[in-house]
Recover the amino acids of this structure.
């Protein structure tokens, strides 16, 4: 889909899912919609990696201006077909679940290269996104990138683990929207900095059922039922639809509200 203000959340949900590079058709679809991979490493694609961390970089045209998108990848090295704790053993990403800032810091040289490319291209709007551990990295990126005279930043994250691993105090950031499933415990591991949180559940209640620790340890794949990227695609699109009925002057000032659309219940609340 072509990126517009009206479909920002849904578009970033797709880009976030594509960042795992598990479905080549998503990459092709994005390119067909006018997205261009920003090749920072000279290897022919928009993925940059350092240590266990990675992000995808894109440029596209939105509202008649060239914008950049940076999408941080989450945990991608767990074998969910394996039962029990063995699924988590040996995961370099899982070692950062309580040090998400450390995960982000692996990418310091790569994000600097991205920032330099944004500057050289004269891009004034950067959209930031990520899922899970990648959502936390996106929040860390936002903490390090205040708006300035040349560039503005906005983030939409999905199931973010929040910031952890250092002693820095993090304030709420009105530029960040965080989508969460109510029973996803991983979103409580770190400090959440989103200025706006959108929690959602479906009509059947499957996202509200929760998973106890014994289930998670015995059947790691069950975690995906409350945390996988696919959960957020419809919720993000429905939230975009809900926003369409809210005057733009009110989108950052309304109080906690709940709306039901297409079988999903979304609760929107400012941090604090």
């Amino acid at each position: 889909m072509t990126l517009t203000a009206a479909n920002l959340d849904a578009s970033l949900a797709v880009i976030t899912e594509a960042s795992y590079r598990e479905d080549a058709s998503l990459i092709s679809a994005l390119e067909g919609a006018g997205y261009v991979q920003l090749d920072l490493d000279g290897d022919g694609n928009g993925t940059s990696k350092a240590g266990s961390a990675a992000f995808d970089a894109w440029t596209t045209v939105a509202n008649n201006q060239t914008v950049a998108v940076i999408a941080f990848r989450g945990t991608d090295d767990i074998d969910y077909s394996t039962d029990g704790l063995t699924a988590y053993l040996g995961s370099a990403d899982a070692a950062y679940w309580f040090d998400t800032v450390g995960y982000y810091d692996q990418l310091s040289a790569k994000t600097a290269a991205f920032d330099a490319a944004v500057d050289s291209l004269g891009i004034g709007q950067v959209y930031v996104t990520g899922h899970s551990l990648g959502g936390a990295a996106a929040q860390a990126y936002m903490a390090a990138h205040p708006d300035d005279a040349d560039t503005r930043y906005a983030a939409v994250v999905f199931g973010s683990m929040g910031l952890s691993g250092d002693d820095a105090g993090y304030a709420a950031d009105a530029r960040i929207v965080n989508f969460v499933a109510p029973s996803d415990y991983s979103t409580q591991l770190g400090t959440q900095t989103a200025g706006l949180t959108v929690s959602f559940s479906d009509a059947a209640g499957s996202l509200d059922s929760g998973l106890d620790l014994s289930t998670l340890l015995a059947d790691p794949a069950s975690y995906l039922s409350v945390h996988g990227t696919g959960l957020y695609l419809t919720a993000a699109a429905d939230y975009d639809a809900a926003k369409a009925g809210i005057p733009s002057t009110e989108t950052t000032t309304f109080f906690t509200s709940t709306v039901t659309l297409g079988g999903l219940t979304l609760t929107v609340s400012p941090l604090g």
Remarks:
- Confidence is low (pLDDT under 50) at residues 203-211, 248-257, 259-263.
- Residues 108-120 form the longest helix (13 residues).
- The chain has one domain: 5-270.
- The radius of gyration is 18 Å.
